[in-house]
Write a structure and sequence with these properties.
CATH topology of one domain: Nucleotide Exchange Factor Grpe, Chain A, domain 2
Distance between the termini: 162 Å
Number of helices: 4
Strand content: 15-25%
Largest sheet: 3 strands, antiparallel
Radius of gyration: 47 Å
Strand order of the largest sheet: 1-4-5
CATH class of one domain: Mainly Beta
CATH superfamily of one domain: Head domain of nucleotide exchange factor GrpE
Shape: elongated
Number of strands: 6
CATH architecture of one domain: Roll
Helix content: 40-55%
């Protein structure tokens, strides 16, 4: 049998032969010069200034928080009993109605004198708690303090003046607890003025 000719076979691959190198595969030396290293002292000073600014901000926020907390605590103590005092006002209204009925019967009766003493104690308790009565009678109507239940024509007082108080109002320091229910004066009706002119 004849041996195959060496020329008829594909020559073996040369292990030293390699694929053509691509530009990406070729390692190129760095052409950019290395950036200069930052000054450690300047970096440390900048970082210290940043931490100092943060510390000042935190100290200011903490101080504001303390002031706000103290103010809220003071208001809470000042108005802590507002709901209790507000619930006493209807009881005081009824008690004063009974006191007026006892006064009409006899101011020398033991019932009236006993009720007067209790009423004085209640008023003193409210005053000591910081409660003051809302001024209303003969005052100009103030919607922030007064609740108008009706109007009456009047020629003796200016329009918008409180003629009567139907229910007392109260404040706790500078906070309104209950508005005063009042009757407010209005201008005389035009028909009345016209009739008066015809009669003259």
């Amino acid at each position: 049998m004849n041996e195959p000719s060496p020329n008829s076979e594909t020559p073996p691959a040369d292990p030293s032969a390699a694929a053509p190198e691509t530009p990406e595969a070729v390692a190129t030396p760095a052409t950019d010069e290395a950036a200069p290293a930052p000054n450690p002292l300047e970096a440390a000073l900048a970082e210290a200034a940043q931490w100092k600014d943060t510390a000042y901000r935190n100290a200011a926020e903490l101080d504001n928080f303390r002031k706000r907390a103290a103010r809220e605590a003071q208001e809470a103590r000042a108005y802590a009993n507002a709901d209790l005092l507000r619930s006493l006002f209807p009881i005081l209204d009824n008690f004063e109605m009974g006191l007026e009925a006892a006064r009409a019967e006899s101011e020398k009766s033991m019932i009236f004198m006993g009720m007067s003493m209790v009423h004085r104690q209640i008023v003193d308790f409210l005053r000591d708690s910081g409660v003051v009565e809302v001024e209303a009678l003969s005052k100009p109507f103030d919607p922030n303090l007064h609740d108008a239940v009706s109007q009456e024509a009047s020629t003796s007082v200016p329009e918008g003046t409180v003629l009567r108080v139907t229910r007392k109002g109260y404040k706790l320091k500078d906070r309104l607890l209950r508005a005063a229910s009042v009757v407010v004066s209005s201008a005389p009706a035009p028909e009345a003025s016209a009739e008066g002119g015809q009669a003259a």
